[in-house]
Write a structure and sequence with these properties.
single chain; mainly alpha; Fumarase C, Chain B, domain 1; Fumarase C, Chain A, domain 2; 2 domains; 3-stranded antiparallel β-sheet; histidine ammonia-lyase activity; EC 4.3.1.3
C-alpha cells in the first residue's frame, strides 16, 4: 500500500501511520504542474547572467562567487558530496522513510524549483525499499538539516550508502539492484534537497508519537497503581477539573474514572478510607499527566504545520520571483522538541513515584515490602524500582532545553542556530526510557492488585493485567529479572498496553 500525500494539508495521523508502519508515500498527481512551473523558472534563471543565490552562486559565506552556467551541475554535485559530513549511528529505517515523505511534501508545494524527476525518484526509492543510510549527528538545525539530508541526497546521485533488501550497499549499487537510476542534479536541486527541516521534524514527530503512546499507557498504569495502593478516586471527580478548565487535565481525569469504574477494590474502601488524602503521585495525576498531554498536543500542532511547510531556500514565489529567506531555521521544531522532552520527563517522574510508593511498606497500605511474597528471602521488585529511578534521572538530565544552545557556524554567516536536530534526536532515548519506566510500573501495579485478591480491580484494568501476564508472569519468587523488564517495556512501546483497554477511553493526540 502506498499513501498519497496532498502537500499543505497532510494530517498528523498520516505521518503517524508512515512512522509506525513504514508505508511508502507519493504525491497526488495534481501537484505535478506546480512543481514543473517552479522548475522552469529556476532553469530560466540558471541560463541567464543575473546572479541568484543557490542557483548560480556559491553557498553560505561563498554566496558572492558567481558560477558559470556550464558548472551548475558540478556545483550541485559538489554541494552534496561536501556536505555528507554526518557521524554516529544510522537513523532507523522508519524514521528515514518519514524524512523522505516530509521532503516530498515540501517539494510538492511547488516553491522549491526541482524537476519532477527528483520527486519521482524519491517516490520510487520508498516504493522499492531503497533507504538511505543517514548518520544521526551533524545538524545544528539552521540552514536546514544539511549533513543528514546530504546523505539522503547522495544516494539519489548514486553515491553514499543505502539499505536494500536488508543489505547495506553503496548508493549506486542499491539503486541498480532496485531497478532505479541515479539523477544528475540540475540548478538548485541539491540545495532544495538539503535545505530544509525534514530530519529535525521527522525525529521530533517520532519522539511525539512515542511519547504520546507512553503517556497513554501511563494513565493506565497510574489507574492500576491507584487501585493497588487502595487510593481514592474522589480527586478524579469531573467538577474538580472543569473548575480549572485545562483540556488535558479534564481528559486525563475522565480516563482515570473510566479505567477505575467497577473496581471491587475501590468499592471496598470508598466509605471508610483511613487516609484523608493520597500522595500527589496518586491524587494529582490529572493535573500532571493532563498538563503533559497539553504540551504534547501543542507540539503536535507545531509539527503538523512544519511537516507541510516549504523550508528550503531560495523559494519560487507566487509572482514567479525567486527570493532568499530563512524558512530553513528550525526554531519552531526545536521548541516543540523541548516541549516533548519536558512532557516525557514529567510523565516518567510521577510514574516513578508511584512505583516507589507501591514497593515501600510504609506507604503502600498493607502491601508486602517490595511486593515480594516472602520479603527477606526474596527482594521482589526492589531493584526494578531502582532501575526506574535511574531512568527517571537520566531523562531529567536530557530534558534541558536544546533550543537555547545556539552557536555560530559557517564563518559567522549562520550565526544563530536552533539545535533542533539533536534536540529532537534525544527524544528517542528519552521515550525509550519512559516506556521502560511505565513497563516497570505495570509490573508493580499488577503485582500489587494481585495481592488484593479476592478483591478485584475494574473490568478494564483486569484486561490490562491479563494482557501483561501473557508476556510477564506474576513474580512468585526471585528470578532473573532483566527479560521481564525488557518485555514490560516493549509491552508499552509497541502499543500493546494501550490497546488492551477499550478504544476511546485514552486521550488522543489532537493536532
Amino acid at each position: 500500500m502506498t499513501i498519497t500525500l496532498h502537500p499543505g494539508s497532510v494530517p498528523l495521523k498520516t505521518l503517524e501511520t508512515i512512522y509506525w508502519t513504514g508505508e511508502a508515500a507519493k504525491l497526488d498527481a495534481s501537484f505535478d504542474a506546480g512543481i514543473q512551473k517552479a522548475a522552469a523558472r529556476i532553469a530560466e534563471i540558471a541560463a541567464g547572467d543575473e546572479p541568484v543565490y543557490g542557483i548560480n552562486t556559491g553557498f553560505g559565506k561563498l554566496a558572492s562567487i558567481k558560477i558559470a552556467p556550464a558548472d551548475v551541475a558540478t556545483l550541485q554535485r559538489n554541494l552534496i558530496l561536501s556536505h555528507c559530513c554526518g557521524v554516529g549511528k544510522p537513523l532507523a529505517e522508519n524514521i528515514v522513510r518519514l524524512i523522505m515523505a516530509l521532503k516530498l511534501i515540501s517539494l510538492g508545494r511547488g516553491a522549491s524549483g526541482v524537476r519532477i524527476e527528483i520527486v519521482r525518484l524519491l517516490e520510487a526509492m520508498q516504493a522499492k525499499g531503497v533507504i538511505p543510510v543517514i548518520p544521526e549527528q551533524g545538524s545544528v538545525g539552521a540552514s536546514g538539516d544539511l549533513a543528514p539530508l546530504a546523505h539522503m541526497t547522495a544516494v539519489m546521485i548514486g553515491e553514499g550508502e543505502a539499505i536494500y533488501a536488508g543489505e547495506r550497499l553503496p548508493g549506486g549499487k542499491a539503486l541498480e539492484k532496485a531497478g532505479l537510476k541515479p539523477v544528475v542534479l540540475a540548478a538548485k536541486e541539491g540545495l532544495a534537497l538539503i535545505n530544509g527541516t525534514q530530519v529535525s521534524t521527522g525525529l521530533a514527530l517520532a519522539g511525539l508519537f512515542r511519547a504520546h503512546r507512553a503517556a497513554q499507557a501511563a494513565l493506565v498504569t497510574g489507574a492500576l497503581s491507584t487501585d493497588a495502593a487502595m487510593g481514592s478516586s474522589a480527586p478524579f471527580h469531573p467538577d474538580i477539573h472543569t473548575l480549572r478548565g485545562h483540556k488535558g487535565q479534564i481528559d486525563a481525569a475522565a480516563t482515570l474514572r473510566a479505567l477505575l469504574a467497577g473496581s471491587v477494590i475501590r468499592d471496598s474502601h470508598i466509605n471508610g478510607d483511613e487516609r484523608v488524602q493520597d500522595p500527589y503521585c496518586i491524587r494529582c495525576q490529572p493535573q500532571v499527566d493532563g498538563a503533559c498531554f497539553d504540551l504534547l498536543r501543542s507540539a503536535a500542532r507545531t509539527l503538523e504545520i512544519e511537516a507541510n511547510a516549504v523550508t528550503d531556500n531560495p523559494l519560487v514565489l507566487s509572482d514567479n520571483s525567486v527570493v532568499s529567506g530563512g524558512n530553513f531555521h528550525a526554531e519552531p521544531v526545536a521548541f516543540a522538541a523541548d516541549q516533548i522532552a519536558i512532557a516525557t520527563c514529567e510523565v516518567g517522574a510521577i510514574a516513578q513515584r508511584r512505583i516507589a510508593l507501591l514497593v515501600d511498606p510504609a506507604l503502600s497500605f498493607g502491601l508486602p515490602a517490595f511486593l515480594a511474597k516472602k520479603p527477606g528471602l526474596n527482594s521482589g521488585l526492589m531493584i526494578a524500582e531502582v532501575t526506574s529511578a535511574a531512568l527517571m534521572s537520566e531523562n531529567k538530565q536530557m530534558s534541558h532545553p536544546a533550543s537555547v544552545d545556539s552557536t555560530p557556524t559557517s564563518a559567522n554567516q549562520e550565526d544563530h542556530v536552533s539545535m533542533a536536530c539533536h534536540g529532537a534526536h534525544r527524544l528517542l532515548r528519552m521515550t525509550e526510557n519512559l516506556s521502560a519506566i511505565i513497563g516497570i510500573e505495570a509490573l508493580t501495579a499488577a503485582q500489587g492488585v494481585e495481592f488484593r485478591a479476592p478483591l478485584t480491580t475494574s473490568p478494564e484494568l483486569q484486561k490490562v493485567v491479563a494482557a501483561l501476564r501473557t508476556v510477564v508472569a506474576t513474580l512468585e519468587e526471585d528470578r532473573y529479572m532483566a527479560p521481564d523488564l525488557a518485555a514490560a517495556g516493549t509491552f508499552v512501546s509497541s502499543g500493546a498496553l494501550a490497546a488492551s483497554v477499550t478504544k476511546g477511553i485514552l486521550p488522543v493526540l489532537e493536532a
